[in-house]
Specification:
By secondary structure, this protein is mostly helical. The longest helix is centred in the N-terminal third of the chain and has 16 residues. Helix content is about 50%, strand content about 5%.
Length: about 180
Amino acid sequence: MVDAVEPAFKVGTTQYYRFKDDYRMPVGRYKYVHAFLREVDLRMDLATLKAYVSELKNCLNGAKKVIDIEGAWKIVFSLETRTELAFEPETVKRLASVTYFDETEDLSTYDRKHAKDKINKWNKSKSLDFFLTRPISDLLGLSGISITSLEDYLTASTEIIKNLAYVPPKQSQENSSENGRST
């Protein structure tokens, strides 16, 4: 397995690695890459999409026997806005948390708690290296982007999502069918 991985980037004293080729990744781990790639494509996680659909149904099924067209259009506008973003930072962070790994990780699966700790460490140190390292940089088309431009985009996209006409309530990631190990 050692010849299948290579250093990707370092945050503080922690070295993160990546697989040289995706096909060398153990199936148990790749299934999470696949799930998070879908989220990156949608610009939201499955729980968020389900919350949008649920709220849209509420607008169209009217509790008072009245269809809330304005509410429905707000949801459609919010969904459309999200899908038009170049990428949504939180979904990319989750993808990076499975794509890049440290020496302590079991590569045959995915540990959500450890992944959350990695993301927190990256956020705390303001590290953007995972955005600029292959394969994430290739996936997002970020080759050659400056740190300043990336920071500006992250700030703007986060603000756009926060200010959408409809923002679904936060759902726990632990309810996902793609849970991984939650130790």
